[in-house]
Amino acid sequence: MEILTVHQKGKSQIKSKNRLKIFSLILRSGGISRIELGKSLHLSPASVTRAVEELVQAGLVYEEKKEITFVGRRPVLLNVRKNSCYSMGINISRRSLSLCIQNLQDEVIYEVKGNIWEVESAEDLLRVLHQFINEAIAKSGISTEKYISVGIAIRGVVNRQKGTVIYSQKTQEVIPIVDSVKKIFECAVFLENNVDMDLKYVYARAFPYTDELVYVFVDESVGGGMISGRQMIRGESNMAARFAHLLVEPEGRICSCGQKGHLESYMARSVMEEEYRKRSGQKEVSLNYICAQAQAGEKIAMAVLKEGLEKLAIALSQVVVLFNPGVIVLCGDIFEQYPQSVDFLRKSVETLISIPELLHFNWRVRIQKEIKPEQNMAKLALEYLLEQ
Ligand SMILES: [Zn+2]
Asked: Helix %, strand %, coil % for the chain, to 5?
């Protein structure tokens, strides 16, 4: 959508910025007059008229019909056409890729999810991504010039400025994902780490009054994020809050990073499944099965989960001491399938910390069913665009 692109230099930049601001305000207002627009944005009537005219001509904005009432004529209200342009959201985890297309009122027009378990190299990842995008464009019938923003949330180490990601810990390849996707679209493309993105979403929607928040995500590894003073802590190299590599057992098991005794080598899904297999002699086990067994009081399952959770408690007690959070949000199958784990974690952390002021935080579990990361990313991309 060329008309909403902010051009780089000189007068045209000011013009396109005004246009974007006006469009953004019309979208958020749900109906607003030209006079109110001018007042809210401190723009002259002439600038407002010119920008609105361009938006109307591009088919993004329409004027509500004048109604003649007994008290006089209502001012003409401007509204956006909800299907005049779209935002695409993509979420790429270790195992799957999900994609959606949403209109300006966040209604989902198209969605798809697929398995990408085998994907490892940059070449494969970009090929699969292009495949999903091209198929979505073809099947939805919404052609590339109709997109106003594209948001990609992905696992791994994200560099938002450069638009790159290190997706695979094994290959350590730096993947230029934004440049690659920009070959398809003319619009703005935004990149986020998927845990950061979820953290932002959790924070903004669920805990608007908490300044200090720790978010822990347990699955194939242990990810997370922290918010302090309403800002996300990203770190110098976008590497803050890599909980997976906190030391929990000196001289312990070998971690995927090569060091010994890190949290990941005790708490990752596959590690707990392997432990259970070894001790029970069973071949096919999933974490959900272990959780169900533990719920039923089976000893091996309870022991395996407890060992992982003990290590998580050690890691979290360090985080609490360093960071003094108001809320710890836990996300992962283990917390949902085995609710006793949260209570166990709380008690363990309490025995590890003896400064009562540090224990004034709340525990929360984020239910994954409620998370639609691709939809959140589509919304976030639109927000980013309109904030520019
Ligand atoms: Zn490690």
From this structure: 45, 20, 30
Give distance in angstroms: CA of 309 to centre of ligand 1. 17
CATH assignment of the domain containing 242 = 3.30.420.40
How far does residue 251's CA lie from ligand 1's centre (Å)?
12
Per-residue confidence in pLDDT tens, the chain, 388 aa: 677 777 666 666 777 888 889 999 999 888 899 999 999 999 999 999 999 999 999 999 998 876 666 666 667 899 999 999 999 999 999 889 999 999 999 999 999 999 998 898 999 999 999 999 999 999 999 999 999 999 999 998 899 999 999 998 888 999 999 999 999 998 999 999 988 888 887 776 666 677 789 999 998 889 889 988 878 888 888 788 999 999 999 999 999 899 999 999 999 999 999 999 999 999 989 999 999 999 999 999 999 999 999 999 999 999 999 999 999 999 999 999 999 999 999 999 999 999 999 999 999 998 888 778 999 999 999 998 988 7
Contact 211, 230 (CB under 8 A): yes
Overall pTM surpassing 0.90 (yes/no): no
In a domain, 203, yes or no: no
Residue 121 CA to ligand 1 centre (angstroms): 21
Per the document, the length of the chain is 388
Same domain? For 57 and 147 the reply is: no
Candidates 181, 192, 156, 150; CA nearest to 378 is 150
Question: How many angstroms does the Cα of residue 324 sit away from the middle of ligand 1?
Answer: 24
